[in-house]
Amino acid sequence: MSHRPVVTRIAPSPTGYMHIGTARTALFNWLFARHHGGTFLLRIEDTDRERSTSQATAAILRGMTWLGLDWDGEAVSQFDQKDRHAAVAHEMLARGAAYKCFASQDEIEVFREAATAEKRSTLYRSPWRDAAPATHPDARYVIRMKAPQTGDTVIDDAVQGRVTFRNDLLDDMIVLRSDGTPTYMLAVVVDDHDMGVTHVIRGDDHLQNAARQTMVYDAMGWDIPVWAHIPLIFGPDGKKLSKRHGATGVEEYQAMGYPAAGMRNYLTRLGWSHGDDEFFTTDQAKEWFNLEGIGRAPARLDFKKLENLCGQHIAASDDAALLHELEAYLAVTDAPPLNDVQRDTLSRALYCLKDRAKTFPDLIEKAEFSLNARPVIPDDAAAKTLDPVSRSILKTLTPQLQTGTWTKETLEPFLTDAAAAHGIGFGKLAGPLRAALAGRTATPSVYDMMLVLGKDETIARLNDAAT
To answer: Where is the Glutamyl/glutaminyl-tRNA synthetase class Ib catalytic domain (predicted)?
Structure first.
């Protein structure tokens, strides 16, 4: 088993948005495959025809792409394989590992109601399990798997350890419905086998399914993959993550302005650890990731920690990559795109913005001065700093600024001296300068803004404010 090249998969159902838990499961599978130089596959489990939509499939692909989880080959549709699934059900029948069951839904319902009333087990035991073919009616039937009725099914799970299921508590599950369509339980196993999946890494809500699915592998004589059932994500209150805790869909996080690298780092760390490392790059995560690092306790979503990590990733980002992702964020939020002047000025400004921003809205707010076009209209707080005295000081500055070289080394002493000449400290001059350059009171440093805007634009803004 261990000599086979690693193949993992993510298999979401396209019945809505892509849940953050699905995204983390995809991330773990992707990291594990990339760590081992293996293959990471994407399968869309679209057998529920009434609930599956092309819009939901598109949302899954967008979410995966945004997170940077590149899958190998084409995304596969489970529904497209339905004939293959049915063929396996019939092969199980031929092997004596499954049987035709002619019991109607009504008969099963009557049995269950009686069992409930008599406080007996409602586990349905079909009378057709050992019926001779000669007694079969000419009627519709389902194919049920012949599950072992004694002993245990043991799952050796890479995360949960050894888990034992009593076979007398598991029924003969249906693998093919009476209309000839396969059940989810059969389809998953056939697809994983056919795709060569070696490691099934998924939520621990599937742990019981592993017992059922092991029986299908055994019935077909197929290699059983390594199971790794990971704990679910809980909200900050320790309850299963739901809408009341905040965003649960991956695309909501993109629209809230979290950078993909920060999101990857945070989700990797959610339920998996490598020593005390909190902040790490994607390359480090690929290098370190293993199943041993996954904990058994549910992970709690912590927005403060997410923001903190995202801030570190924004600060560590390459300016060109950051600008690219910032523009993608503006596009998904339907904000107006940057024009050429804004793009150019913002790219020059990133060096003095990115150390203090935790999200993209945060970054854009701090970048306001570089995105504004003249005339800059100050907000109320900034306007208060532009009193007649301040305006006259600004007016005296502009002719002198025309002549000097435009570097922090020359601007700093020049402005300090100018303030002193008017009998004030630089702090008193900074307010009107901020108002003139950015139209607000909280901004990057005055020197950084002047360097980013350049000499001509700075002087033009100061002149506007001085009049």
So the answer is: 6-307
